[in-house]
From TrEMBL:
<feature type="domain" description="General stress protein FMN-binding split barrel">
    <location>
        <begin position="6"/>
        <end position="135"/>
    </location>
</feature>
<dbReference type="Pfam" id="PF16242">
    <property type="entry name" value="Pyrid_ox_like"/>
</dbReference>
<dbReference type="InterPro" id="IPR012349">
    <property type="entry name" value="Split_barrel_FMN-bd"/>
</dbReference>
<dbReference type="InterPro" id="IPR052917">
    <property type="entry name" value="Stress-Dev_Protein"/>
</dbReference>
<dbReference type="InterPro" id="IPR038725">
    <property type="entry name" value="YdaG_split_barrel_FMN-bd"/>
</dbReference>
<protein>
    <submittedName>
        <fullName>Pyridoxamine 5'-phosphate oxidase family protein</fullName>
    </submittedName>
</protein>
Length: 141
């Protein structure tokens, strides 16, 4: 079993932009959506994503803040799978959002940080599991 520190895992995750963010629905199902971490590849146990305040994802998080995020990369013998369990918060403060905003987001949120109904999801990890060609393990941040 590999035993990595958070810093070592973050280095291996560098470049993994896309993830699947999963929430619990009002009917007890699990709903997953592809999300971009906006190029923030220096993972420190927190992730940030943007969505609409009225989206199902935001409503799911308001009801149950426990979420899961899955990252993956690789083919053949070089692979990395990362599963993050954590707690999500919905943030509406422009000050909180500005440090995580990237111009590519203007594609979906045409008024930038001034887009009506914009929220940022912050996910703080409580447990991280990983599997790689070098082994697997868990980190509790």
């Amino acid at each position: 079993m590999a035993t990595w520190t958070m810093k070592q895992l973050a280095a291996k995750m560098r470049g993994l932009d896309m993830a699947m963010l999963s929430t619990h629905t009002s009917r007890g199902h699990i709903a997953s959506r592809p999300m971009s971490n906006n190029g923030e590849v220096d993972y420190d146990g927190s992730s940030h994503y943007f969505t609409w305040a009225e989206s199902r994802m935001a409503k799911d998080i308001e009801r149950d803040a426990k979420v899961s995020i899955e990252f993956q990369h690789g083919t053949g013998g070089d692979f990395l799978f990362v599963q993050v369990q954590g707690t999500a918060q919905l943030l509406t403060s422009k000050n909180a959002m500005k440090d995580h905003w990237h111009a590519e987001l203007d594609r979906w949120f045409t008024d930038g940080l001034d887009t009506e109904g914009l929220v940022m999801i912050r996910v703080d990890a409580s447990r991280i599991s990983y599997w790689s060609a070098d082994g697997d393990g868990q980190i509790t941040p």
